[in-house]
Amino acid sequence: MTIQGFFGLLAPAGTPLETVARLNAAMRAALASEPVARTFGNLGFTTVYSTPEQMAARIAEGRATYDRIVKARQIRVD
């Protein structure tokens, strides 16, 4: 199993769709800019744009993966 970390821009549940769209467009433009890509690259990161729907799916997938790990290993938080 390979686990990859990621960073994302998140907003509270119920944020108006037009606000989400504006934030998403700004993030897409920033990630496409050479200075941002270079800065992240210097830190060892690769910039990848995703839609809000793709980010939600990635979070859900990660949650399901960690749920399986926690159950399989019988991990408990005290």
Descriptive overview:
The chain is mainly α and 78 residues long. It is 60% helix and 0% strand. The protein has two domains: 15-47; 48-78. The longest helix has 22 residues, at 52-73. The protein starts with 16 loop residues before the first helix and ends in a 5-residue tail after the last helix. The mean pLDDT is 93.
Primary descriptors:
mainly alpha; 60% helix; 78 residues
Report the principal-axis shape.
flat
* Relative strand content: under 5%
Largest sheet features: none
- State the separation between the terminal residues, measured CA to CA: 27 Å
Secondary structure tally: strands: 0
Q: Using the CA coordinates, give the radius of gyration.
A: 16 Å
Q: Residue ranges: pLDDT <50 for 5 or more in a row?
A: none
Output the helix-strand order: HHH
What does the average pLDDT come to? 93
Number of helices: 3
Write down the domain tally: 2
Helical coverage, percent range? 55-70%
SS class: mainly alpha
